[in-house]
Amino acid sequence: MARCRDIQYGIISLLMDGKKHTITELATNLNVSYKTISRHLNDLSTYYPLSTYVGGRDSGGVQLKNTFIHTNLFNNEDLSLILKGLTQLNQQSPEVIKLMVKVQNAMQKHPHADTPAISSVRSKENGQVM
What we know:
This protein has six helices and two strands, in the order H-H-H-E-E-H-H-H. The chain is mainly alpha-helical. The chain folds into two domains: 64 residues, Orthogonal Bundle (Arc Repressor Mutant, subunit A), CATH 1.10.10.10; 57 residues, no CATH class.
C-alpha cells in the first residue's frame, strides 16, 4: 500500500509544474510501467483536476490544471509569510514587485481564506497601485 501512495505522490509532484507530461515520461521518471501510471491517473482524477490530451503513446499527455496549483499549494498564512519576507527585502525591483502582486492575488483568490488579503502593493517609483 505504501508503494501505491509513493507512486501517486510522485505523479502529482511531477505534474505540479503545470506542464503537459506524457504517460511514458511519467513512467520513466517514476520507474514504473505505462499501465501503472494509467491506472493511478484514473484514481487521481477523482481528487485532482487533471486535463488529458489524446494522442499516441508518446504524444498524448496529462496536465494538472493551474487553478489547483495556485490555490492549493499554499494557504493564506503561508502566503502572508512569503509576502512579509518579500517586503523585508527592501528591494523595489520590478521582479520583486511582480512577485508580491502574484502572492497578493493568490491570497485574494484562495478558497480557504483564513487571513485578510492585503489591499494593495505600491511601486516606490510612481506610487501607483500594482
